[in-house]
Recover the amino acids of this structure.
């Protein structure tokens, strides 16, 4: 009897050893498969090592199709199989549950709640990998829903547990490299382009020899530099991407290169070049073996935008229809999901002379543009998060240096990193930039001053002027230019000049009502529209503003001197050509400068055919 007990005990121990080895072996083989590009991964799965007659083997086989198969039905298990997975392998049961939430069509609120429930279970059971995987999906969903502050807070909570793995795209985990990229996406969308650039470069520098990481890093670098108006640096990054595309000979990299070149030239106000690059990118993309509908959608947006700027209504409408005909899941997601189509549709209708129809699209788009994120957050918290991430980064690197494993880890990640993960990141990048640009065309905010940019401000003023109906309806449009601003740049440097410009813009913005429009016209010149204001109202408003500006102590900003400005103001009481209004403002501004600066000159609007106003 005693000998039987010994034999049974030995058999149980042997079974446990075999089970542990199988589970560990399956996990290792799945990691190896997921590190490969999609085409290699599919080949590996043809002759897969998993015993699909068992629940464990079947699950590991199906879960190895991550990023290849996005149909929830593909990953389905029977009720009895789920029961076995839950009872015998609970860690993988909840890993699968997080995956199924990601693939579901649940609302954002439902997704957030279910992810947080799994986070709590993983934390309670000490499953850091599952907690990381779930956190990464939660952060992705928050970014997609444009709850960027919330995403940053989730990242901060997970930093102490983050994986030391420097490779990006480690499935069913959440590495520090992934955190870098998620922080970039969040900060970019919030308009903190300096911070976004820092995290973009942290991510890129993790794998300097990996072409996929470099292209992905260069992509985010280019967009960020364009937003910072560092066009020479952006062009240099485009050249690096071009060299990389030429060295690898990969068509997908050429598509990205052409796409970002189109974005670059569109920002340089060269719509004809933007169109040519975007068209070449689309042709190359559609002729490739693997057509990504999300890329196609982004390119149609660029083509629509360039044709609108070239005032080609028919072509713009053609590309807009192409863009809108793509499946919804490949279009922009989140609270602003329709703003691209609405605004483009409004512009097309305006070009066709259908102004009433255009107005309805404008109104709907503006409602979406002014969506506000429901999250309490302070930039002090953001600074603490940044510090925490840096500390975690340094700690992990020191540990690896002490163990003499850092070079090996980077080399391994370079050798095995998945190019598909990089392409997926490119898709996420385009989807997460909606708050400021929507592929650089549907933007409304100037990246330096955080007030309306020239395009959006003028377009909004134009809409207001063209919809004037009442006899007593008036607006005043002004061009405001800082006096002797070059002295500040020369004395304190351009960086300090940018700080002063931002300070001036913020002060002016706070003096405007909701019905007014204030934006950066270019350089140190700003455009202002006072709704319902007469010349006297405008003079009084600018007098008050001038008094506030003159009292500013620039030494607190690190600069010297005081601020003053000149302005040319035009009163408009009927529908008018916006270019003629601005031209008259410019003449009045020039007269104010010639007359001694620090003053305003007003006049009612006169069409161009009338005598000179000054």
């Amino acid at each position: 009897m005693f000998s039987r007990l010994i034999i049974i005990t030995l058999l149980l121990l042997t079974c446990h050893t075999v089970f542990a080895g199988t589970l560990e072996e399956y996990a290792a083989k799945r990691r190896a498969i997921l590190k490969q590009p999609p085409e290699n991964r599919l080949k590996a799965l043809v002759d897969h090592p998993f015993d699909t007659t068992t629940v464990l083997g079947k699950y590991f086989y199906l879960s190895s199709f991550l990023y290849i198969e996005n149909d929830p039905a593909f990953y389905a298990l029977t009720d009895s199989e789920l029961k076995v997975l839950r009872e015998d392998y609970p860690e993988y049961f909840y890993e699968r549950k997080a995956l199924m939430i990601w693939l579901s069509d649940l609302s954002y609120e439902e997704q957030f709640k279910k992810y947080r429930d799994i986070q709590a279970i993983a934390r309670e059971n000490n499953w850091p990998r599952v907690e990381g995987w779930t956190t990464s999906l939660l952060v992705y969903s928050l970014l997609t829903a444009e709850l960027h502050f919330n995403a940053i807070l989730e990242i901060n909570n997970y930093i102490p547990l983050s994986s030391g793995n420097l490779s990006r795209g480690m499935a069913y985990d959440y590495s520090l490299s992934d955190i870098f990229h998620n922080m970039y996406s969040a900060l970019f969308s919030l308009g903190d382009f300096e911070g976004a650039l820092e995290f973009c470069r942290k991510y890129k520098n993790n794998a300097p020899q990996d072409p996929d990481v470099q292209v992905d890093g260069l992509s985010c670098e280019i967009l960020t530099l364009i937003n910072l108006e560092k066009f020479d640096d952006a062009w240099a990054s485009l050249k690096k991407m071009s060299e990389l595309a030429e060295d690898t000979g990969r068509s997908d990299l050429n598509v990205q290169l052409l796409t970002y070149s189109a974005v670059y030239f569109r920002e340089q106000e060269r719509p004809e070049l933007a169109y040519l690059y975007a068209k070449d990118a689309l042709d190359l993309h559609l002729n490739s073996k693997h057509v990504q509908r999300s890329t196609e959608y982004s390119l149609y947006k660029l083509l629509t935008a360039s044709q609108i700027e070239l005032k080609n209504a028919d072509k713009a409408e053609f590309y807009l229809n192409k863009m809108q005909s793509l499946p919804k899941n490949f279009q922009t997601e989140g609270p602003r999901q329709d703003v691209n189509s609405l605004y483009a549709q409004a512009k097309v209708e305006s070009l066709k002379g259908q102004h009433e129809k255009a107005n309805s699209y404008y109104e709907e788009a503006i409602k979406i543009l002014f969506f506000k994120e429901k999250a309490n957050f302070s930039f002090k918290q953001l600074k603490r998060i940044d510090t925490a991430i840096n500390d975690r980064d340094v700690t992990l690197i020191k540990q690896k240096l002490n163990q003499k494993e850092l070079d090996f880890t980077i080399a391994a990640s370079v050798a095995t990193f998945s190019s598909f993960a990089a392409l997926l990141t490119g898709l996420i990048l385009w989807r997460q930039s909606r708050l400021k640009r929507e592929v650089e065309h549907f933007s409304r905010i100037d990246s330096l001053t955080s007030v309306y940019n020239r395009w959006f401000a003028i377009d909004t003023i134009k809409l207001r002027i063209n919809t004037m109906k009442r006899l007593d309806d008036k607006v005043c449009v002004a061009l405001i230019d800082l006096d002797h601003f070059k002295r500040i740049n020369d004395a304190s440097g351009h960086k300090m000049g940018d700080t002063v410009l931002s300070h001036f813009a913020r002060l002016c913005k706070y003096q405007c009502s909701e019905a007014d429009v204030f934006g950066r016209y270019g350089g140190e010149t700003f455009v202002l529209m006072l709704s319902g204001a007469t010349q006297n109202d405008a003079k009084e408003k600018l007098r008050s503003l001038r008094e506030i500006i003159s009292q500013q102590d620039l030494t607190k900003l690190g600069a010297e001197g005081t601020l003053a400005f000149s302005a040319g103001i035009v009163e408009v009481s009927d529908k008018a050509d916006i270019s003629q209004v601005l031209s008259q403002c410019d003449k009045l501004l020039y007269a104010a400068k010639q007359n001694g600066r620090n003053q305003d000159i007003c006049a009612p609007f006169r069409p161009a055919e009338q005598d000179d106003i000054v």
